Every structure is written in C-alpha cells, then in structure tokens.
Automatic annotation (TrEMBL):
Organism of this sequence: Pristionchus entomophagus
Membrane in keyword set: yes
Entry protein name: G protein-coupled receptor
Lineage: Eukaryota, Metazoa, Ecdysozoa, Nematoda, Chromadorea
This protein's UniProt keywords: Membrane, Transmembrane, Transmembrane helix
Transmembrane helix as UniProt keyword: yes
PANTHER family xref list: SERPENTINE RECEPTOR, CLASS J
C-alpha cells in the first residue's frame, strides 16, 4: 500500500540522516573537542558510534512495531529471517539505556564529587563501562 511505502521511505531517510549526523558529530568531537572535556568525549563518541550502528541495524532488520493497549512488540522483516536477528535487535536496543546510565553517573560525579572524575580514566572503570551494556545485550 502507499502508506506502507511512504512509511518505509521515511524510515530509510531517517536512518540515513541518523548515520550522517552521528558521523559528523564523531568528526566534530575528535577534531574540535577541548582538552578540558577529558574522558567525557569518549562517552560522547560511544553514544554517536552506537547510534550509527543502530541506524544501520534498523535498516537491515526493518522492524515493524506492534502496539496494542499495554502490549509493545517488534517483528523483524530482514533478509535473513532467523530468531537471532530479532533477539539481537532487542538486545542492542537496550544499549542506549545502559549508556545513559553511565552518562548520568559521569555527570553526577563531575558535579557532586569532581575530584573523583579521573576515575573514569581508570582502565578498570572503562572495562566495567564496556561490560555493563555488553552484559545487558547478552541477557536479552
């Protein structure tokens, strides 16, 4: 139908704009960030790079959202129709929420206890920040 085709075109354009704008953001972060921004720029790069990935994944999976009353679901319509594609999409969908939690922790510490902000440069904290969204994705 025409409305379905229009919807698919809007999704494709939206995904393309998402990829382009996030790649531009990553370029701006890398090339023009002040030194004072410190490790925060890596958190911003994580957001932007994962958004590029999610836009590409969304284009590949082509999810169809189903919302009825209190029920929210997504069905995939990708070239490869296997359960793992849908499960992966659901798992990766949770990563921005994990990144947002890390972002709030960073902002809280930078405001309330700024002398501890260097902790985000510690390799163990970085490993934990990577492990947290990874574990959530795997759990899904």
């Amino acid at each position: 139908s025409t409305s379905m085709l229009t919807s698919e075109i809007i999704e494709m354009v939206n995904n393309a704009i998402g990829v382009i704008s996030n790649i531009l953001l990553m370029y701006l972060i890398v090339e023009f960030s002040r030194k004072e921004i410190g490790s925060y720029k890596y958190l911003l790069l994580a957001f932007a790079s994962f958004d590029v990935f999610l836009c590409a994944l969304h284009s590949f999976v082509k999810p169809k959202i189903i919302s009825v009353g209190y029920i929210f679901s997504a069905a995939t319509h990708s070239l490869i129709e296997i359960l793992r594609v849908g499960a992966s999409f659901a798992g990766f969908f949770t990563v921005p929420f994990s990144l947002m939690n890390i972002h709030f922790a960073y902002r809280y510490i930078s405001i309330r206890i700024p002398e501890q902000i260097l902790m985000f440069s510690d390799k163990r904290v970085i490993a934990l920040a990577v492990l947290y969204p990874t574990a959530q994705t795997i759990t899904w």
